[in-house]
Specification:
The chain is an alpha/beta fold and 546 residues long. The chain contains 17 helices and 29 strands. The chain has an eight-stranded mixed sheet with strand order 3-2-1-4-13-14-15-16, covered by helices on one side. α2 packs across α3, α4 runs parallel beside α6 and α12 runs antiparallel to α13. It is globular. The mean pLDDT is 96.
């Protein structure tokens, strides 16, 4: 098989008219040849860090959408399903991904559970990490979120890092805001990347100290604008990633969009493409072709080097996307889940005490301040609104009640308050609650919160919106975090749910994605686990009432 086009040689920084010959899934030859074909042929895009589960799609369905944007491979941390199902969940992701022509590169989840301050569905200890890393399908040790464990030489953390070094596999980092001597020690432990930088200065320091920095632009966390000006000088040590991308967003674009945005800023196209295509392959030692003779035939055909509109995608020489149609077909699989809690009562969501009834002065509470486009939050303080001894939502001030409900056991729901969700009516809830994936909900009153939580319990997972008259849900029967439906269907259902949440008053760009991170304790400052309100700066529980 032969293809003609403008060959984009990233390594040598040249573009020339040429012809590619394919044989047995490999590139047999690339030769300069005059022709009238004007489209461009270049290596496929690689998402350098993503949790496939956050698309709410199983790997095979994720691939079906990703190839339409020229993505041929991902570096995928199956941390989410591992927190629900342990090693069995990781094996499910690998097995399902192998059923389609796409290059998933899974890591060994290093932090299951992410912390000891929450209830997860499974534990992956250092012995299990060793077993996973022995598997050739596991390419790296996934993000070490327990950075306090690294800084204080926690024995179990050190064993996990040691096994990665033993098997000569890269170690991914996760160190939001870590600077100075702390980040130096974190890097010296062998941790080579970070995708959590949210300021230029932080990323610059980490690059100077030898880390690879990933520019993240997902559905919730958006750091492209903060970090992109580092790319021209540091392109050899940077990559693009999504981290988390919801299905409606994946239908629209992927890494191709980041390339287009970078080129629009006047950044050299070869530097942009090295970040998007080459660096992940070399850093993680991926079996992904880079458009060289003898390589796997993993490449894409794009209309131009401005918008990067994908015309065709090839993986191992197989045409997987052509003329607007994904060639990847739906595959069958068996659903796995871990959902063991019973329905709740409205009274379960009251936060009351005799002290609240007796105190006549104003009561102050800690409030989580959610920030648009960020996973970090602020800790702020507000006067509490009290009704019959119960702390309740203050709709006027946009300080709403929030809960995290343990889905693995029947325990009392944890209660907190959160600002910037904007709901005026009803509640929203999700069983996608990083990292342990307990149920998380925000609402205007206890009745709405209870209704939303019970809708998820009834369906054993999903995301939902409830109002006074209506309820909508996207069921997620695979581990309570993924759908068993096709990507187009899930994307449409999610878009309808997102629109309903905004009709109820939410001003957030991605309210469900933002909600899913409000229980992520390893991202400062204030978060809520099923065990209580947690300060991510001091790594300790704090009281709701000051």
């Amino acid at each position: 098989m032969k293809l003609q086009g403008q060959i984009v040689d990233i390594e040598n920084k040249r573009i020339y008219k040429g012809e590619i010959t394919l044989k047995n899934g490999k590139i047999q030859s690339i030769k300069e040849k005059q022709h009238d074909v004007n489209h461009y042929i270049l290596p496929g895009f690689v998402d350098a860090h993503i949790h496939i589960e956050s698309s709410m799609l199983v790997p095979s369905e994720f691939a079906k959408l990703a190839v339409t944007h020229g993505t041929v491979a991902t570096v995928s941390d199956p941390h989410e399903i591992a927190n629900v199902l342990g090693v069995e969940g990781v094996e499910f992701m690998i097995k399902n991904g192998k059923k389609v022509p796409f290059k998933f590169n899974f890591g060994a989840p290093s932090c299951v559970p992410a912390t000891n301050f929450e209830s997860a569905g499974a534990v992956i200890d250092s012995d299990a990490i060793k077993t996973l890393l022995e598997n050739p399908d596991i390419k790296y040790l996934a993000e070490m979120m327990n950075y306090p464990g690294v800084l204080f030489d926690d024995e179990e953390v050190m064993k996990k890092l040691a096994w990665a070094k033993h098997y000569n596999k890269p170690i991914d980092g996760h160190a939001p805001g870590l600077r100075g001597d702390d980040i130096s020690k974190y890097i010296s432990a062998g941790i080579s990347t970070d995708h959590e930088c949210f300021t230029y200065e932080e990323a610059f320091e980490k690059l100077q100290k030898g880390m690879k920095v990933l520019i993240r632009e997902g559905s919730a966390a958006k750091n492209f604008e903060a970090l992109i000006n580092l790319l021209p000088e540091h392109f050899e040590n940077m990559m693009f990633c999504s981290d988390d991308k919801h299905p409606d967003d994946l239908i629209v674009d992927h890494i191709n969009k980041l390339c287009a945005r970078a080129v629009a800023k006047g950044i050299d196209v070869f530097k942009v493409l090295q970040v998007a295509c080459v660096n992940p392959v070399k850093h993680y030692n991926l079996d992904v072709g880079l458009l060289k003779e003898g390589d796997d035939a993993d490449f894409i055909v794009v209309e131009d080097l401005k918008d990067f509109k994908t015309l065709q995608t090839y993986i191992n020489g197989e045409l997987v996307f052509d003329e607007g149609e994904s060639m990847i077909k739906q595959v069958s699989f068996k659903n796995l889940n871990n959902f063991n809690c019973n329905k709740k009562q409205v009274s379960d969501f009251r936060f009351e005490s005799s002290a609240l009834r007796l105190r006549s002065e104003q009561v102050k509470i800690r409030v989580i301040e959610a920030l648009e486009g960020q996973l970090v939050t602020n800790e702020i303080f507000s006067n509490a609104l009290i009704s019959e001894g119960n702390l309740v939502s203050n709709i006027e001030e946009d300080i709403l009640k929030m809960t995290v409900v343990n889905r693995y056991n029947d325990d009392k729901p944890a209660i907190a308050f959160i600002k910037n969700f904007g709901l005026k009516v009803g509640a929203i809830a999700s069983s996608v609650g990083h990292d342990s994936h307990n149920i998380i909900a925000v609402g205007v009153n206890d009745e709405s919160i209870c209704k939303a939580v019970n809708l998820l319990i009834k369906n054993k997972g999903g995301i939902c919106t409830v109002s006074n008259t209506e309820e909508k849900i996207v069921p997620l029967p695979v581990a309570g975090i993924m759908s068993d439906k096709d990507g187009e269907t899930v994307g449409k259902q999610y878009a309808e749910l997102d629109a309903m949440a905004k009709q109820l008053g939410s001003k957030l760009n991605a309210p469900y994605m933002t909600l899913s991170f409000m229980a992520l304790l390893v991202i400062p400052s204030l978060k809520l686990s099923d065990k209580g309100l947690f300060n991510g700066d001091t790594f300790e529980f704090v009281d709701l009432v000051c």
